[in-house]
What does this fold into?
Amino acid sequence: MNRDNDKGKVLIRRSLIMALIKFLLLLAIIARLYYLQVYQADRYKTLADENRISTRLLVPPRGIIYDRNGMVIASNQQNFQALIVAEQAPNVQETLDAFKKIMPLSEAEEEKVKKDLKRNRSFVPIKIKDNLTWEEVSKIQLNAPDLPGIVIDEGLSRYYPYGASMAHFLGYVSSVSDKDVKDDPLLEVPGFKIGKSGIEKYFEKDLRGESGNLKLEVNAYGRIMKEIERVDGTPGRDVQLTIDARLQQKAFDLFGEESGAAVLLDVHTGEILAFVSAPSFDPNMMTQGLSQEDWNALLKNERNPLTNKAISGQYSPGSTFKMIVAMAALEAGVIKPETKSYCAGKMSLGNHTFHCWKKQGHGHLNVVEALQHSCDIFFYETAQKLGIEKIAEMARRFGLGSKIDIGLENEKAGLIPDKEWKLRRFGEPWQQGESLISGIGQGYILTTPLQLATMTARLVNGGYEVKPTFLKISNGDKSKIKKMDVSQANLELMKEGMYAVVNKPGGTAFMSQFNYHGEKMGGKTGTTQVRRITMKERREGIKKESELPWRLRNHALFVGYAPHDNPKYAVAVLVEHGGGGSSVAAPLAGKILKEAVMLDPTREKVH
Amino acid sequence: MYKPYETTFRNQNMTIREKLFNISFSYVLFIVMLATIGVIMLYSAANGNWSPWAINHLIRFGIGFAAMIILALIDIKILLRYAYVFYFATLILLIVVEVAGHTGMGATRWINLGFIKLQPSEFMKIAMVLVLARYFHTSSLQSIESVRGILPPLLMALFPAALIILQPDLGTALMLLFTTGAIFFVVGVQIWKFVAVFVGGVIMIPFAWHFLHDYQQNRVLTFLNPERDPLGAGYHIIQSKIALGSGGVFGKGFLNGSQSHLNFLPEKHTDFIFTMLSEEFGMIGAICVVVLNMLILAYSYSFALRSTSYFGKLLAIGLATNYFMYVFINIAMVLGLLPVVGIPLPLISYGGTVMLSVMASFGIILCVHINRNVPLGKD
It folds into this structure.
């Protein structure tokens, strides 16, 4: 009985111990609840929201680019694309395989899809194929049961209605690459495109707009339960350029198969009305993604369709430089308007002989006549008297030798040599012969077509230092344009010379004149040698251009303006290896200027 | 005035009416409260629908409630007398299920009675407590402290546990063994024997590991490191912790648990119902459930202590311990303190057998309380 008592006591003692243990264990549970629900609550709240909320960026429509007359030159086009949402596909690979049966995918395309899938969370729609036709869209929709996770999306893609003609200044948009700075979450959106060159790149920030946010509540399987919040983004800002699409198209078409550049400016404002580099490429192809073959073809083309020749091409200005030499000489008083030189077809300096392009010589001529006939001897002599420093100074004042910066990449500065430059560059002193050569725009001098257009505008607008721009110049800005300290009379003389070039018999561009209701153009031709001319050739006379292979033919240049009486437009045309300035460049420039005059909004409509 | 709680009569012939008045009202109230919470949560689990779970839960609770009252009212001597019978009957059911499972019916844990699927393993837990209480009721302290004395009850526990492991249902088997161990502990088996078994067990772990099914091994590994496989086996426990933690102090509100309702939380109507409760009603709701369970346990203990018979004491303690196992293992599991073992939260989780077996346990505990003054000899 005693032992029985003990047995009861043991039971009670041990029971109480166990009750205590249970109590402590339940307290531990409460402590754990406190830890999870109070101490770590914020962390888990965030995690729960991450589970629950799927945030999608709303891509804003890209800003439209207009020409000066409000014509759309870069727009957004509706574009159907097939997307895959990984979390909605039970087996992504199976879905992709089924998709491939309906619409073949190249290996590279499939790789890209898989890479994008890996890089993004499973609810992010990944583009499989875009630019789908209606037929393809309906084919996918018909097979929808076999394609879980495939979604058809109506997106916007960039479209350039003028295609190649505007590629060199508009640039293009393309997929974000690893090199691009990811300063905006939009850039992480698969398939998002940004401006890669030209105006598209320069105005990227404005054109892009601000992304919106769409917060969706999704369940564990990724199904959208409801929209929690939608913050609409800001559409990209529209941009209006000074380009006139009609003139641009006309100028581009005029080049045909030729390679070269043309820049048409408003002489009073510097507004760029046409900006051509030929040949070109279709920016729409760039936007859709270029195949390797097409890309290689562009790279290999000897006419460099990818190079923006209007700003990246540096060419000897040739005879188009003669106005600068003449201005410098007149301003310096080295020559007077009536000063005449005698051209015998050649002249000597030391033991060198310098030839005029006209072997038999031009006889006596003053500066206007020298420009009209593009006499080399006159300018050799003038340059000899003037010296390179004065020429260089005048050249710089007219916008040559330095970058103008119109917002496009790869602009080249050109080159205006002087004594100091020569010494620095070659460690040799300047030779007088080099001054002579410079006098006819040859030698070291290099200019871009844009610079030549600027030079021409400044020559004919009364000496205002206009700067080319793609953006409209307000009247306020216009009044701020500085007037250069040059004699108006001398400028008038230049115009007289350039008028004679086109409109006087014997002028080098006489064949290119036009008279549109009394409005005429003036200008100056230029032909520059691409290869070194050997002494032998100098003696024997230069071979006919057409006998040479394309790459060795001369560049043809023309700078001009119109209307002569009240200049409004200035143009610079360069045709690479085109032959002669008078035969190739001048007619082309003439047609551009005539078109500009015809389309001038201020002129009375002529019936 | 008639004072039912002060009845001191020693005769065993209480009337039904007297017995009914002796049922602890508070104890029953706690049980009803927990079951009500269960109905509410199951209503929420079905996104605000009575079907398919809440209504069934209510019906099962009703049946369980009736069973509890009936058991509370029976004579405790019957329990003492038929303890072995009940144990062996349950054991036979267990063997039947096991054999049936191996003869082409697939791995079954239950016997289908049409309206309810009974798992004999659940009832084995009650039978085990009953038979151990019966056994130790008559054995002496010397016998308890001797190896010979505890060998028969040990075998009585190990045999069904082995059968249950073979089903395979590791969780239930472990619970059965833990309950047995707890009873061994309270009756006074020496501590060093537990230590010896524990050490032996630790040594056995590498061998036992071998016998675990892959999914069981995974559960243990996942418990040790849930991030091991965040989308696979670890997913449940990670999502459970997120749901719990994000509930905070006050919860997200009834029917507003995002983790639960957007299906991030698995098994929200069964094993993880406590998580959903904690998400929607926060720490306050969770602590309420824990406290209610503490009260049930405390009352069970007080009933045990007030019982004059060793059988009654041990029966109440054993069944309370069994109940505690469910509650603790389930909650610790969803809190990430124990591996996921598939133990429901009684009265709240959806599930017929557990409801019935737990209500039966409560009935027996109430029966012990009602018969606290009934002397039970060592016949």
Q: What stands out?
A: The first helix of chain A runs from residue 2 to 39. Chain A has a mean pLDDT of 88.
